[in-house]
Amino acid sequence: PHQGSVRVTLQETVELERGAGLWGGHAFTYLCLWYGLSFCTLVLNKYILSLLGGEPATLGAVQMVSTTVIGLIQMCLRKSSHKDFPPNFVSAMTLMGGMRCATVVLGLVCLKNVAVSFAETVKSSAPIFTVLMSRFILGEHTGTQWRVSASLMPVMLGLSMCTATEVGFSSLGFSAALSTNIVDCLQNVFSKKLLRAYTYVLLHKHTFMPAELQFYTSGAAVLMMIPAWLLMTDMVWLAVPITPDLAGLLVTDGALFHAQSVCAFALMGYISPVTFSSVASTMKHALSIWLSVLVFGNPVSVVSAAGSALVVGGVALYSHARAHGGHGVTAAMHA
């Protein structure tokens, strides 16, 4: 095929997910690690931002610098480098870096201003955004698109029910959460494109490993983080002495963030963007809501329990619709 574009049948994607997809050995391992690391990072972020009065931009800068340094060490140890790079490499990494920077900063702004459960509820709209973006950016279509879309409704309704009894509203927090959601969906779609598209287009010559994609995008994000850090950081907080305990928390947070991100990129190599957002991320949000209830002591209602059951049912419906909707349909992917 032409080097600029390639057509891949959706059935091939379905078969790949059946053989080594979300429930395959490697993918399931990455899924479990991603869940555990994400929740640990979430709790630590909330602790630093709320109880210690940390600044979102500063914490975001710590996370980005940490993951860049750790990623560089990983690449040096593995001696993983490309002798040449794919077309538009700089622009692709700049775009991904910008999205990572925006996702981290907006997510921390949201977490500082609203409850964890509220932030996770807003993220329940991710499946709709990802379906639309995968359709227009990757060209993914299914023969039973209406079934896939319909199966996402109970997922989001269930997540909304999970926190209906204790949602607190903050216009800044809500706006940041919604913006984070949209940018994160875009990042998922473009990450998938970088992880797989070059495999088809350039015959495996420029395929990026998760650690490489993590390093390059983090490095670009650090450069873009500097203006945001200068504009958003309260310099008074910088005057606070960095105690050994606080330094340890920041280092731990950065390491957890790096491990979480690498696991997410690795998982995206096994599944489609819609499956990543609609199944993997959705279940993570549901678990985060329930675990945050236990950690932060929020009361559990009958509505929340019913919502969790609805989420599980919706994910099952989505998986069924996705698995039976790809026959004879094609998807155009442009490099």
In short:
This protein has 335 residues and is mostly helical. It has helices at 10-20, 25-51, 56-78, 89-113, 116-122, 126-138, 145-162, 171-201, 210-232, 235-238, 244-268, 273-296, 302-323; strands at residues 5-9, 330-334.
What topology does this entry show?
Layout: E1 5-9, H1 10-20, H2 25-51, H3 56-78, H4 89-113, H5 116-122, H6 126-138, H7 145-162, H8 171-201, H9 210-232, H10 235-238, H11 244-268, H12 273-296, H13 302-323, E2 330-334
Antiparallel strand pairs: 1-2
Can you give a write-up of this model?
- One of its GO terms (cellular component) is membrane.
- Its main location: membrane.
- InterPro entries: EmrE-like, Sugar_P_trans_dom, TPT_transporter.
- Keywords: Membrane, Transmembrane, Transmembrane helix.
- It is built from 13 helices and two strands, in the order βαααααααααααααβ.
- The protein is mostly helical and 335 residues long.
- It has one domain.
- Strands 1-2 form a two-stranded antiparallel ribbon.
- The chain starts with a strand and ends with a strand.
- 48% of the residues are buried.
